[in-house]
Amino acid sequence: MKVAWSRLIRFVATDGRTLRGEPIMPSADFDLGFVTESDKLQAKVIVGDDLYDTTGKTKVTDEVVTVKRLLGPLTKEDVPILRCVGLNYAKHIREAGRQPPPFPSIFFKPTTTVHDHDVPVVIPKIAQDDQADYEGEFCIVIGRDAKDVSESEALDYVAAYTAGNDVSSRKLQRDPAYAGKVPQWGFSKGFDTFAPLGPCLVASDLIDDPSKLHLKTIVDGETRQSEGVSDLLFDSKNLISHLSQGTTLQKGSIIMTGTPGGEHYYNHQSTMVRVTNDHCLLILGVGFGLNPPKYLVPGTQIHVYITKIGTLRNGVMFA
User: Fold this and answer.
1) pLDDT in tens, 223-248
2) What pTM, to 2 d.p., does this model score?
3) Do residues 193 and 113 touch, judged by C-beta distance below 8 A?
């Protein structure tokens, strides 16, 4: 579907207004995730109540303003629901020693998890005991209500794509003493601020084939996840079609498509590496899967980068 903008940012302008706009990109490969006030990035103001309007009521105006601080593109009021997919990267499934599921494994995050770009994720007291973790994810933004759609028409309902972080609490998710005998994903992943999104929305007509994108999660300068979106077991078309059967995917809904794992090969020092023809490439995975595990603590910096979208950046703090 064709929306009024190509890229959408939400930001505080130098005049103090909080606005949405179409950024005027300094170059084709400019990463909006690293914009600061000193960059003096300019944007054309977007007006209209419906971000995904296709009738002309929402417009990119000729008013040009300067960005002081970039926020997340969406607020929790903009998102009716977040549907999330567990174990959706083929390599991740193999690493977990599981058989590929016949259908996607789905869970939900409340809209109170939606969080801005470039602000800290807040870990609540219940999850501060060596369990808070990151999951970099490619996210789909539904632009019009979808129900019972086929795979062939599924992408016609996509307004945009963005990057996300499915922040998780591993003990509450997996430890039988906290989660019970069956791992659960709702409570453990549903705390306030546990779904940062950003740094922008990129209209679907700029990304004709999402499978060509590449995702990286970098934690404190170390690349922990690096995988092509092409490794998704259930791709964008399949997810939209499957999730819409008998269910209305509301306009503004987010689909978090899952997180990559790491390549679990070890050298003699128990460091996770992938051996290539001429070197060992460090590919680690989520913090829970490292040896020893590395969980989120105050001051941790998480970057989720996706080609053509940019870098979602968040720090970490304890409540």
Assistant:
1) 999 999 999 999 999 999 999 999 99
2) 0.93
3) yes
